[in-house]
Amino acid sequence: MSIILRLAWRNLWRHKRRTWLTVSAMVFSNVLLVFMISLQLGTYKMMIDNTLNAFSGHIQVQHHLYNDDPKIRYSIPEIIQLTGQLQHALGSDAVSARASAFALASSEQRSYGIQIIGVQPQSEFKVSTIPGLVKEGRYLSDPYAEEIVIGKVLARNLKVKVGDELTLLGSGRDGSFAAGIVKIAGIYESGLTDLDRGMVEMPLLYFQQLFVMENQGHAIVVNVPDLFEVNQWQQKIIQQIKVQPELLALNWMELQPGLLQAIQADMSSAWFMYGILIILVAFSVLNTQLMSVLERTREFGITMALGLKPGKLARLIILETGLMASLGLLLGCLIGFLITLYYQRYGFYYPGMEEMAIKFNLPDRMYPSASWLSVLFGPLIVYLFSMLATLYPALRLYFLRPVDAMRAA
Amino acid sequence: MQTPIKTITILAWRNLWRNYRRTFIMLAAITVGAWAMIFMTALMRGMVDEMIKDGIRSLPGHVQIHHPLYRDDPSITNSLSAPSKQLLTALKQDDVIAWSTRVRVPAVISSERDSRGIILVGIDPVAERSITNTADNISEGRFLTDKLDNGLVIGAALAKRLDTQPGKRVVVMSQDPDNEIADRGFRIVGLYQATIEAMEENTIYAARDTVQKLLKMGDQISEVVILGKDYRDVSTLTENIKSAAANDTEVLPWQELDTYLGTMLKVMDGFVFVWIVVIFLALSFGLANTLIMAVFERVREIGLMQALGMRPSGILYQFMLEAFFLLTIGLGIGNIAAVASIKPLESGIDLSVVAEGMAMMGAGSTLYPALYISDIILANIIVIILGLLTSLVPAWRASRYDPVEAITKT
């Protein structure tokens, strides 16, 4: 161990209580940062996954006007062939075609306006969780069948059960009157009231016949195995559809701008809070190190008179802070990591959270997810700011005049 | 001998400035902490207040009366009869600012180009004006004039979806109590705008009597909406209405009608408290450190003062006072800085970059910070009380020194 390191280490423990208090300040904010950042990242991931997996998927191919203005006439021609082509090109079967229209659904007792989605029963379950959420009856299977899957709330409101019939009234793509009678094959429950109350699914081929779509649809939904590969996949899809300039490939950020913006808004308020916490720790370090420099003025005067360069002394001070900050970093990360691990396993809960969770498609317990990034990011910034805070006391040493310093009280 | 309080105060004040660098750093930390507490709280409060105000406007009202099954199944069959005499008396009381009866049913609107599922609301345009602000947010055309108006007011966003505009005719279709399809043509007389686009897209307004006639429901209504004096305190109003309303109805305050909004208010109170405590804890380490150092530097002095006859309590008070001065000065500057930084923002902070994200949370795209005196007081009291508690330990230790040992300490 070099002499300067040993000196720094011993200096730290000349005022045990002060050093521990400063380290505690770092540990306190580090633990908080590790836990909060892990919780945030875990929540964001869950928000994105739950929202995208439920229905919208990661990438959708659409007519270029459809996303802003979802009208039935902004459709994709030859949609089933194009879907097959994309499945082949991407080497993935998580690609599925959809069409969408509005209709009035009537049971014997009630009528409600609903959104009807035409889906490909064989591939829909690869891009959406709804097929897996069928609680009564079964999901669609026959691509031509005149059957439908509806949400639980809608079933209750229409007062219907599996096996009952619904009359659908709407208008076709050509503006003609579209009417059909369908049998309820299953009832799903997603927990998202908007879907459960207002969205139903039927086989795409029957949908095309009912709404005079002539082999057209409105979206090809693609699910990407890893969120970080979305851009790559999007590029590949763009390559495939560039012969049809009226089509667009939109990623989830373009499809669900609210999701990303909610995350951004939450991030900025969180970082304001973290910033304050970090600044307060930096003040603590500044205070401690300035005191420790000031009280050693005589000592420094003597060592300088003996020939030690101010640069060496400044390095000593910086090393002292470095040791202290490392201690804070280590303990903070460790404790923070353990706490995060506990909640990662058992979930985190605070009163009133269920209502907020539903808004963002989250379960009623939150699970932080610890990763290298979430554990180290906050504490490293605290470390950085602690070192910055030492600059002032360290730089003061350059202006120290040995003779005056030795006489200092 | 009891040292006079004045002497102790002077000692504490002068001690504070002996090591002015340390004091300034600590003051800066307390100032930043106090500023952050109040500033952040004002922003969050502002956001939640707007959310609740918007939420109450779109509910609308503080208390609503429904058929017990209506909220789960908003069908025309779950309607109420017009308010009874007893209810009318209750609605005339002082704690009711305004009230209105509405018909509110799911319906389908079709223009020449497109159809959408929407909520058709039949309102009494005059009473509605004092409950919602839709009438003030007409972007084109006019609002409904009276209960018999034949026009229709729809959201600007819906008009775009339907490719239609004021002056054009649309067909509105719903069901009557016998599950027969009831439909009629309406002329759009006005477009309104709302803070949250989803609302613009799914709610349309027509005059109540026109809707009642269309749906063949006589003088039945879907809901009675009541606006009280203060949204924070609606329990008495709810009780009064409950005792006057018919037995087979459901009377609920806004917190239960929209549980998300209701819990937001509670969650906010919790958040404000936690935030203040967390900031304080981050400060407390520095505060304790400063005092411990101050005590440590002055051990000999403490011994001397004790030898000269100052009681331990005098030493204790001296250090506590020093901490108190430090805290109050820091808080004072922090408070002023917070108020000064919020005032210029009171006209609203533009958050339209993340508008759709804010809409997901149920908030509009402009944030109006709300500075509550109660929050400021809470923050200051918490910091002073916890700060003094933190200082108690070093101050108490200082007062327990043995004078002989202390005075000889090098």
List key phrases describing it.
heterodimer; A: 409 residues; alpha+beta; 2 domains; 10-stranded mixed beta sheet; elongated; B: 410 residues; 6-stranded mixed beta barrel; two-stranded antiparallel ribbon; 15 helices; 12 strands; 18% strand
Description:
- The complex is a heterodimer of chains A (409) and B (410).
- The model of chain A has no long low-confidence stretch (mean pLDDT 90).
- Chain A folds into 2 domains: 3-52 and 259-407, no CATH class; 59-223, no CATH class.
- Chain A is 56% helix and 17% strand.
- Chain A starts with a helix and ends with a helix.
- Chain A has 15 helices and 10 strands.
- In chain A, strand 6 and strand 7 (177-188) form a beta hairpin.
- In chain A, helix 2 packs across helix 12.
- With 410 residues, chain B is α+β, with helices and mostly antiparallel strands.
- Chain B folds into 2 domains: 5-55 and 262-408, no CATH class; 60-257, no CATH class.
- Chain B is 52% helix and 18% strand.
- In chain B, a hairpin with a 5-residue loop joins strand 6 (169-175) and strand 7.
- In chain B, helix 12 packs antiparallel against helix 14.
- Chain B is elongated, with a radius of gyration of 31 Å.
- Chains A and B meet through helix 2, strand 2, strand 3, helix 10 and helix 13 of A and helix 2, strand 2, strand 3, strand 6 and helix 10 of B.
Short description:
The complex is a heterodimer of chains A (409) and B (410). Chain A has 409 residues and is of the alpha+beta class.
The helix fraction of chain B, in percent, is 40-55%
Number of domains of chain B: 2
What is the distance, rounded to the nearest whole angstrom, between the alpha carbons of the first and last residues of chain A? 33 Å
- Largest sheet: number of strands, sense, barrel closure of chain B: 6 strands, mixed, barrel
Q: Would you count the extended β strands of chain B for me?
A: 12
- How much beta of chain B, percentage-wise? 15-25%
Unreliable stretches covering 5 or more consecutive residues of chain A: none
